[in-house]
Structure formats: structure tokens, C-alpha cells
Amino acid sequence: MSVIQRIRDKGAWIIFGIIALALIAFILQDGLYRKGSLFTNTSTLGKVNGTPIKKDDFDKKLALIQQTNQQAASMRQEELVAGVWNVVVNEEAMNQEYNKLGLQVSSKELGDILFGDNPPQWLVQGFTDPNTGQFNKEQARQQFAQMKKKPNDAQAIAITQAYLQPTVDQALQKKYQLLVTGAVYIPKWMSEKMNADNNAIANISYVFVPYNSISDSAIKVSDDDIKSYISKHSNQFKQEEETRSISYVSFDANPSAQDSAAVFNQLQGIKADFAAAADDKAFVSSKASTTPFFDGYVTRSTLQVPNADSITRLANGQVFGPYLDNSNYTIAKMVGSRMMPDSVKCRHILIKTEDRQQPVLADSIAKKRIDSIVTAIRNGVSFDSMVQKYSDDPGSKATKGEYDFTAAQFSGISKEFAETIFYGNVGEKKTVKVANAQYAGYHYIEVLAQRKIEPAYKIAYVSKPISVSAETDVTANNAANQFAAAARDYKKFQEASAKQNKPMLPADGIKENDFSIGTLGDNRTFVKWIYENKVGTVSEPVKINSKYVVAIITNVNEPGLQNAASARPVVENILRNEKKAQQIINTTMKGNTLEALAQSTKTTVQRADSISFQSPYISAVGNEPKMAGAAFNKSLQGKVSQPIAGTSGVFAIKGETIGARASLDGNAQTVRTSMESNLRNMIGYRALQAVREAAVVKDYRSEFY
């Protein structure tokens, strides 16, 4: 068996996970095997510090990930392009750093990584003996030695790109991080101080006035307020790339009452035919039902459908409906009923004939083997010994071949197996042949227990979606066109919006390479239009999901500091609370004692005991770092503080005692070790992030996608 086939067969699940993580990780590097530039095509997708990223090579990486990763294969194209772009940019930025430092992974190092004491999981999974459960290191070494002799072989290239390069990437990243984090040091005095602080506790009395005691509508936050805040906190509001904003009106193209009635009448018209049908599976299929036929019984307790009570009272052959089921109309037919357990316990022995559609054992040989096993068990040989010696189901060896299943799992089990354990009786022993792709072969099954026997039903459904008719769609489209014709500039857009009572809705922060627009949905062509036109341009109607949208470009936000409109969602509540705090302090909180402050604010004096310096959470108030900090201010012991604006309100405290509790987190050395470990982890990640942020990246993706 080839190396790549072995890995695909035995290690696919973990490989998929590794590559999926690589897609969503912010920092990832490329492999060791880079001789010169990785990208050689003339179509430039972008540049990293002047080094081009070629579209052909980018597309090859896209294709490789789609072929080797099930999760990527199911992703939308725009998500995959964005994810792979981040990977490629980070790879190139980090590779440049590795080259500057002379970092590399030698062949000997790679051999130690692959065949040392802690080999990568994908390799272990691919070369683990199913009979012994042990990793066959020598077999793996031999296979890769053979592969090394044919470096240009398609399988060798695929394995290098999909499996070896990520392994080398991790080794290079680890080397780089060790260089950066090697200087981490926590002084002894700092760990001792931190240990003492962590174990400190305080008791206080306080008066607290929450911000929600003042209505949000009573406090106005202007654009000038937001601009001032942005200026003071400029590092938090730097915008790396251009964004654009639009305002839009929409015209729904949802199904009308007439569209709904048409589907209802269609199903009403086939009820009699459905009731008379002899082959329910064929009938359901012929009507292109959105609910496929399930040839099994469902217990009453797990039957989660509308009108379940009415449906379960039907006689065999009777039909109920049409009725609404989400966005469908459905008719249901009672096919049959029986008693069935809610859960079962069984045990089995499997002799495979196929494994993922690859032949394992001839059918005749498998049948003879299972018959011999059955005979041995009937003659007194223990079931478990036969499981351990012969069963091809490694998942049940540790449980003596036993499994527990619920009725909800019925459809996920092979039909022959499920019917044996759910339809049979306790104590029944049976050999069944299964054609399931994963568990194809002969199963010897014993039903050990069945619990909660209850009625179960086999029901056939014909479901039809309530979809938009051509007439309804044309009506919405015409209305949108009429609006667009009347609203050719911002003033006319506003007037048309008011006249038709269509609110102008904003969509901000649209980036050049986005595929979706706010809550509207996906439309890459529309995003391109937004970037191909100037402020004040009005679009023609655009279909996005079930709406026709007419939009006007309202703003271009250049790279640099965000403007007030884009920062408002983040800043507005902060500034509103600041204004509320000033209002509470200036007009409400009067007095020099807690009792006087409580009287002026119409609140009560409260108490908080055992406040932790380590965790600034105050019972009945919430997370209030300033309040916890004030509690440990020695100058406030026995004194009342000035009013302090906190996270959720304004408070004044009176310190009572500061003490210490018995250490819960070990001694100062334990704290020191923990602090150094946390600092290394943070710096290791931040270093990779800093390389990416420092890179000069030119992004031309919008010209291609």
C-alpha cells in the first residue's frame, strides 16, 4: 500500500483537523522545502515586503486544500480565499524572517521529528498496526526512504505539501519562538509581591449608583465627542485598509400569500394519490420531496415534527395535512407502527469484507470465519476472547464488543444492524450481513438489554418549499427599478425613501475584498461595484438573497484613523457612561459620609467582604476593577473616598480592613513559574503577530476574485 493511501485511510480524520486549524490560525509558516521563490507566475496577486505572490501558485494551494480537507471542501469560496490568503501572507513574512536569521530544519532534524520519541500524530495514525495498536516506526521509516528516492513522484509531492511541510513549519516556528522567549525572566521580588497581592483580601462598605438609573435617551453623544475620543486613543482606532459605507433600501421578494396558497393546493391535490400509493419510498422520491423517505421507525418521544399528536393517531395508510413545517408545506402518511425501545445495549463481533469500499476478505471466507466464531461461543468460549482475537471493530475491543444506542441514533447505524437490535428481543443472537461502507461484512450480534419500550412509527412525508413565484419576483424588481430611477442623488434618495416609507439602512466597514455586505448577505459583484464608483453614486437594483437592494455610496474611509460614524458602535456607550457618571457625581452624590451619600442618591449603604485583589469581582455589582483597587488603598482605611466612575456605575467606598488569606495557589516560586510560562506564551504569539503586522503587504485580490 502506498504511503499516501495509508495516511488517507488511517489518518484522514486527524489530517483534516490539522489542515483546518492551519486555515483559521492567524500565524502559520510554509515548509522547509523552498528553493528560491515559491511563486513563479507573472500574474501577481499581491506582495509581501516586495516579494510577489503569484495567482497560479495561490490557486494550486487552494486546490490542494480543497482536495485534502473535507472542511475546506464545504467552505464557501470567499471564506477559503480569505483564509488561504492569510496563510500565504504569514508564510511569506515568516519565511523572510527565518532566512534573515538562518533558521532551517535539517534532514537529520526532520528524521528525529518524524521517527523520534514523539512523532507527529498524522504519522502515528497512518502507521499504527490495527492488530497491536502500536506505531510501526520502522515500516514508516522504510516507506519514507522509498519516497525520498522519487522526489518528483506525484504522491511524494502531495505528501510533502500536505503533511511534511506543516510539520517543518511547526519546528521552525518553535525555533523562532524559543529565540524570542529565551530572555523571559521574572525577578524574585516581583513574584513575591504578586503572591502577596494574590492572597490579599479586603472588606469595605460602599454606595453604588448604576448607570442604568439614567435613561440612554437622556444622554446625547455627538460626532465631535467621538472624534475627540478617537484622537485621545488613536492606537485603538487605526484602520489598516480602506473601507466604504453605503445606505440602502430594500424591496422584499419573499413568497406572497398567493405563492403559499399555490403550494398548499398542490399538496392538497396529491393527498389521495399518496394515500393509495403502494410504494411510499418511490412516491416520495417522484414528488421531489425536501423531506427524504426514512425506512425506519421513530419512537414517540423522539418524534419532533409539527402536529405529531394528530399524525400518530392516523391509521395505517391515512394522510394528514397539508401543514406548515418551517418554510415548507407537508403532508404525512402513516406507513406503520410498532413497539420499540428507546435505548438498547448490545454486543457484536465484526468480520470485515470491505473497508471504505476496499476489499479486505473474500465473502465466503468471512462467512466461514463468523460461523466458526458463533460455534465456539455456543460451545462455551467467552464472547470477549473472540472479540479480542477476531473482531475487526477496534472501537469496541475495550468494551468487550458492547455498545449502547438510543433510538435517536437509529438512522446513523447500518439498517441491518439497527433493525436487529431495535426490532429484535432481549437475548436474541443473530448473524447479519452489512453492506455499510465502513462496517461492511458479517456481524454476530447479541441483544443484551432494551429500555423504555414505547410506540414507534414509520411515517412518510412529502414536503414542498414555499418559494417565490416569477410574478412576485417581478413585482419586487419593478418596485426597486422605479425607486432607483427616481433617486439618482443623495437628496432624491432621501426624498424617495421618505415618500415610500422605506427606511435608509446603513452598511459600514465594507472592505475591498469582502464577499458580503453587513447583514444583507453575499454578493461579491456588488462589493466590486461599491469600489468601482464614487460617493453619491446610486446603484441599479441588486438581488441579494430574497431582497432587491438599491444603494447609494455614502462614505470612503481612507486608511488611518476611523471616522466618527465607523467608531460610534464601539465608542458611543463608553462616552454615554462617562457623561452619566459626571451627571451622577455633579447632581446626585452629595455628602461626606456613606450615609449622606446613600440618602442623596436614594440608595443604601452596602457591604462587600473578602474582596480579592486577584479577581476584581464584587458580589451584587459585577466586575469593577476600580472598586477593587480602591478597597486595597491604605489611605482610604476608615475614610470615605471621592465618587469614582466605574464600569457599570458610580461608587464611593469606605475601607474597613485589609488582610491576607492562606495561600491557595502555592508559594512565590510557583507564581514565578506560572508568570514566566504565561509571559513566554504571550510573547511567542505576539512575536509572530508583530512580524505579520510589520510586513508591507500589497493586496490585489480584488482584481482576480
- Biggest β-sheet strands, sense, barrel: 6 strands, antiparallel
Q: What is the CATH architecture descriptor of the largest domain?
A: Roll
- What is the C-alpha radius of gyration, as a whole number of Å? 34 Å
Regions with pLDDT < 50 over 5+ consecutive residues? 1-41
Cα shape: globular
Percent helix range: 40-55%
Q: What percentage of the residues does DSSP assign to strands (E)?
A: 15-25%
CATH class of the largest domain: Alpha Beta
Q: How many strand elements?
A: 25
Q: Report, as a whole number of angstroms, the end-to-end distance.
A: 40 Å
Look at the structure and give the mean pLDDT: 87
Note the total helix count: 23
Judged by helices, strands and strand pairing, the structural class is alpha+beta
Total separate domains: 4
